[in-house]
């Protein structure tokens, strides 16, 4: 028996729902980052801003995967979308681990936002540079909850999203075998 292309099976609905949940959690994470930035007045460091990039890629990709699953696109295509989501959020987790490691002084961070401030310049322009330069440190956590910084929470969220996406991708590729 064949189904019409407009009907969706419970499996299609579950897969589309999983992709929508990934997108929703990604949106919540970005909104949380914006909350800390704009309402808590915790300016993000350069590494914090880089950690947002996987969400900016992953959220629209998750919506595309949800739409593709809902429209009953070929399984390999939906599975590939979930695999791409898993990779995107694993990169996000990696960025978070790197940043958290810098905060815990496990390894040095980028010179522009961590370590000693170094040479500021000649005395003539020192006051002017101090008034116009705002350095947000990458090696100091601006906020922690239960000992975990925002970078650490990003690791946990990104790993969860990557695991959800990988689980769905695995389901598509093992089903086709």
Description:
- The protein is mainly α and 177 residues long.
- It has one domain.
- Helix content is 68%, strand content 2%.
- The protein has five helices and two strands.
- The protein has a two-stranded antiparallel sheet with strand order 1-2.
- α1 packs antiparallel against α2 (46-70), α1 (10-39) runs antiparallel to α5 and α3 (75-103) packs antiparallel against α5.
Mean of residue pLDDT values: 86
Query: What percentage of residues falls in helices of 4 or more residues?
Result: 55-70%
Rg, Cα atoms, Å: 21 Å
The spatial strand order of the largest sheet comes to 1-2
Major beta-sheet overview = 2 strands, antiparallel
Specify the overall morphology: elongated
For the record, give the distance between the C-alpha atoms at the N and C termini, rounded to a whole number.
Answer: 22 Å
Name the structural class: mainly alpha
Count of discrete domains: 1
Write down how many β-strands occur, each being a DSSP E stretch of 2 or more residues.
2
Sequence of secondary-structure elements? HHHHEEH
- Given as residue ranges, the uncertain stretches (5+ residues, pLDDT < 50) are 1-7
Strand content: under 5%
Count of alpha/pi helices: 5
């Amino acid at each position: 028996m064949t189904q019409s292309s407009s009907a969706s099976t419970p499996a299609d609905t579950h897969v589309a729902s999983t992709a929508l949940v990934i997108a929703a959690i990604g949106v919540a994470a970005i909104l949380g980052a914006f909350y800390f930035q704009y309402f808590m007045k915790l300016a993000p460091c350069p590494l914090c801003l880089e950690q947002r990039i996987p969400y900016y890629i992953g959220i629209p990709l998750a919506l595309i995967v949800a739409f593709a699953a809902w429209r009953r696109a070929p399984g390999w295509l939906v599975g590939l979308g979930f695999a791409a989501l898993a990779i995107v959020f694993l990169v996000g987790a990696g960025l978070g681990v790197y940043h958290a490691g810098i905060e815990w002084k496990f390894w040095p961070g980028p010179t522009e936002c961590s370590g000693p401030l170094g040479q500021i310049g000649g005395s003539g322009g020192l006051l002017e540079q101090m008034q116009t330069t705002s350095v947000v440190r990458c090696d100091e956590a601006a906020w922690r909850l239960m000992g975990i910084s925002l970078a650490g929470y990003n690791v946990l969220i990104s790993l969860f999203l990557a695991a959800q996406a990988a689980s769905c991708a695995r389901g598509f590729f093992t089903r086709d075998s």
